[in-house]
Amino acid sequence: MTEKKKLQLQTLLIVLLLLVISACVVAPPATRAPKKSCLDCHHDMAERLFKGVVHQPVTDKDCGACHLPHGLIGGIQLREQPPRLCWQCHNDLLSGAKKAKTVHKPFGNGRCASCHNSHNAANQFLLKKAGAALCFSCHSDKLFKRKNVHAAMRDGCFVCHEPHYSNSRYLLKNNDKKLCGSCHNFKAKTFKADHGGLPVTGQCGSCHNPHSSDLPHLLKKFAHKMVVGGNCAVCHISSNEKVKLRKKAANCRSCHKISASGANLNHKPYSKGKCLACHVPHASEYPAMLKNSAAILCVTCHKTPKGKIISSHEPYKKGKCLSCHLGHASKYVALLKVKPVKLCFNCHDHPNRGQYGHAPVEKGKCLVCHTPHHSRQDKLLRQPEGVICQKCHPATAREINKISVHRPFAQGNCQSCHDAHGGGRNLLKKSPDNADLCRKCHAKIFVKNKGHEHAPFKEEKCLLCHAAHASDQKGLMKNTAAKLCLGCHKDLQSETVNNTHNHEPFAAGDCVACHAGHGSAIAGNLIKPQQTLCLGCHREIAATWATGKPHQPAVRDCGICHNPHGSKRVAMLVDKVGNICLSCHKMTKEELAAKHNGISPDLDKCQNCHDPHGNGQPNFLYKEVHPPFANGKCKTCHRGRNKIRPVTGLGKKSVCFKCHKKSSFAYDRGRAAKKKVVHAPVLNEPCTICHNMHTARYKDLMQLPIAQLCRNCHPEVIAVTRNSHKPVADGKCLSCHNAHASDGANLLPVNLSEVCFACHKKLARGYKFLHSPFAKGKCESCHDSHGSKSNLLKKDDRAMCLTCHTDREIKKIHKFKMAITGCLSCHNPHGGRNHKLMRKVLHSPFKKGCAVCHKKGKRAVGTGICLKCHKKMGRYYFRSHNHLTNIVSKQNAARRGNGCTACHSPHAGDDKMLLNAPLKSVCRKCHQGTFSRHATAKFRHKDMGNCIVCHEPHGANGPSMLKGDGITVCTSCHESQGTFSHPVGEKVLDPRNGQMMTCVTCHDPKGTDFRYNLRLDGKEDLCKQCHKY
Amino acid sequence: MIKTMKSLFYILIFTLLVGALPVQGAGWQLKFAMSNDPDGKAALYPAGMYIDQASERYYIVDSGHNRLLSFDKSGKALHAFNANNSLKTPIDMVRDRAGNLIVIERGRNSLTLIDLKKKKVRPHKLAGIGIFPQRLSLTDGGILILDKVSGAIFKMDGSFKIKKKYQCADCAAGFIDMQILANGDIAALARTEGEIFKFKQTGELNKKVELLPPPEFASSFAIDPQGKIFVAERFAGKIKIYTPDGKFIDKILAKGEGAEQLFYPSEIDFDPWGRLCVLDEGNGRLAVFGR
Fold this sequence. Notes:
A: two-stranded antiparallel ribbon, elongated, B: mainly beta, 1 helix, 26 strands
């Protein structure tokens, strides 16, 4: 038997054995366990809950009456939330309370547990505390424990009060008459005698405090003199067991002579004799026998306004109205006790803390800014701080419209800097003569030890340069940097006035391009170390240094050679070149000549051969080297060693033409002209006007980059504009012009078209018939090769054509009486398939004749004519954004009536769409900004030039006139991205604006500097726009 | 712990710095933005706005949802109104003195009068006279409409009959926006030329201001009480500010979807409370900026 089979047999035996054992085990009978009660588990509860007065369900051990069984997960679960749970049994309370006049607040709010325990208690009715102690847990016991306590209080509050609700005031069990009468016999002789012999049968509370009092007979704290003396009969008279008021007593003033000498302003109730509007006649717990505390009494008439109150006057808040006002009459407005000017200063110290006082404060007119009771602003201000200030300071307020606004001023926080009550000059919190005030916010700017601090900054004269509130210059500067700086640095102005070479930022008045206004750690208050600062703009030097060795003085200090603001010398040099160089390289002429192979160099032209900033070449010579110089053949040019300078240029003695063929780029003076046109400098100047003879930084031994060199003499011709020809914009003058001489005018080749076609290759082919100027290669007869407003044309198309063709001739051919415009809408100016140079594709109505569209004698055609055939296009008129109604026609205002012709030619075109120009050019005509903004983007959409792939050219309802929404347009090409990318669609909203997320929410299809055309860096920045973390 | 403390410190420093900086770009800060109706549904492609000083309300013309939204002075959404679903691509509106709404409906090229009291909608189609109104303003005794086709401004009476025409015959594309000035004169912006034309009410050209450098692609302009000219750059998502004589001063805001960013601003105006209101079509909101 193999080992494997043995193992299988053993396994089988074990399984059988297990089956036999399981068969022998007898299963228990299927009986259900008895249900556990709550107390089976909660033994401790049983011990605690059955003591004292026990709630009936607890007595019945019916926990389920209130609780739900909690199951496996512990916790207390009530069957209902209180008070509904309580009302399940005590619903009689609920129905009674609905009809009651007064309801105890905790009961009304359903807070049964504030008085009662739920399971058991030591007191009757499961009350938490016994007798009055329970009530005193909310109601202060002060009023109940004075010298004389009502006897009824001994048995607790419930002798007189209901605990839940009542049909009498104060939750009393009955009205005064019945309740008091239950103990006091009103008819007893002694009772009557105590009340001046008058029949008193109720309204006990008008004189007595029902709980306690410091006065005898439980009289209220402030009782009428007659009441205290029991002289009720002075005011009242008894008639038929009724108490009546004596006539004399009807007028309080008959006894209470209130002296208010000179008071001409009366409280309304006082003037009308309505004393009881505020006072009670017998006794009160409030001074002057007022009905209630002033806080409550006054606001019954003088209502508190609704809305949020931010600040309240302390006396107002505490109801101490009478601390400022008189109750009856006053000489002063609003029944004030004293003059308003003095009143505030009774409590508040005079706020004139500084040298200068705010006018309203000086005059004590606090209420100009403040309100006396409450305010929706801080500090009882009548209105927001800024608004109050603006009312008196309108001129300052108008400064808000300036460009740069100080933040506290913009936010109306005048008190950030000013003390509204009084302070230093201009009410400033701190002196304007130093920066203490500014430092409060701009602390970081004032960190000392800058090293080189600007004097006004050092002296903390911030206001010398900055405006305090607002300015029309950035950074709250009082004036342009140039005017501001030169206002102090007058020497600089006088020094530079005659300069011919000024530093560009200095000339533009942009002082802060280099200098820090406050100062810096670098000499001259420079914003960066000099080298970093200079190389930030002069990057070509930085590039040279990156690969080569710098000239040490240049590294040390640019100012050794250059004047940073300007000078009368090229490159803003501080002195003649030779003087500058020899100040370090101290050599005699002989030593210098020895160093230069025996030739004494021109001392003012060191920089012609040597790079003054340094480079990677030996002796800092430039890379471009003249071959004789490179080979050390000085004699080729220098005939007499150090005595005679070599002559360059076209002259007979010129050494240049020993090697260079004179005839190849100029003419020989004595012979027939080889070249018709010679560049003036070639003719009149030595070659060194443009070239260096030994070495040069630029190709062909040029002294400067070509464009810069050309611009020095031809600044207007090659000024780069928005409509410049591309070679002009790129500074490639020599791609068209010959630098020295040419047979063609303007140093162009005779056949200019050769140059033009070198770039415009498509134009050179495919025409059966050619336009004469084009055939002759006279591109310049129509085009301005440097730049013009439209297609580089010298004039608009009609004017251009009329330079050769006469109006008469044109009319004759076209058989029109009216003037012809827009020649290019039919004709190709370069060539065509027939002798009329018609464009390739003719519009079908045009083939049939002009009258199809044009009415006799009228040139203008509205869009309606176009829509007769192109009916479907009409619907685009009704889109919120459409090109059909957005017409551009400079030449003819009447043409603005036709939206179609803004892009299409109505007559003929070079493609089926009959566009006026290639698609990209048509779009670019209006949307130049969009094209140029994305021109330098690192990642651009491959169909960038084919706008109509994504955009609906005629009209759409979306703002960017897309062919669909931002999803359908993209997924029409990028099919898969629509299924797995970031959620998009109607249900996914951009949290920033609540709009639907689409592909263009994150991608800018026109181009960005981030991969996948993302609008921001996809690693983090883009996501964080929405997913804040 | 140290990291957290460090972060808190930097945040504190940043906050202090930001607080201390002078407010650049004319110090305009977003006060609030209005986009959602009272039920929380956001506007889609809002094309026009109207500010009613009398009732202190802002109106947004929600062209994408064919409705008008109203907001109170603080930006709280009040109502969404679609005239019983009868509006078709509304693009601008005004509320006349009688309380009627006059709405430009591009969907049927109509100047539609909505009588709110009688609950009647009366379209007045304009296709027959070849006018496609783009902007609408109330003026003394009538309305001004800016016709997108001719680029001219027409003054109409209450029954929509043309009474006067203001135009620039030499402009390539005519006017693209208009404003009624405090003295009742009319200012209009010619986009292609980058010039503001100021007409007297009689129609006579009073003044021409050339904006230098000209805006790239202006969609709207507004003139503040001091005469400074604010121009909305539609594609650059910025507002350019010029002096009253047309010299460029500064530009504010930036392109984007964030709080103080614009995505295709379509209309700007100053409300009676001196705040700059920018209707942002791409972001579907009316943003109100204050100093």
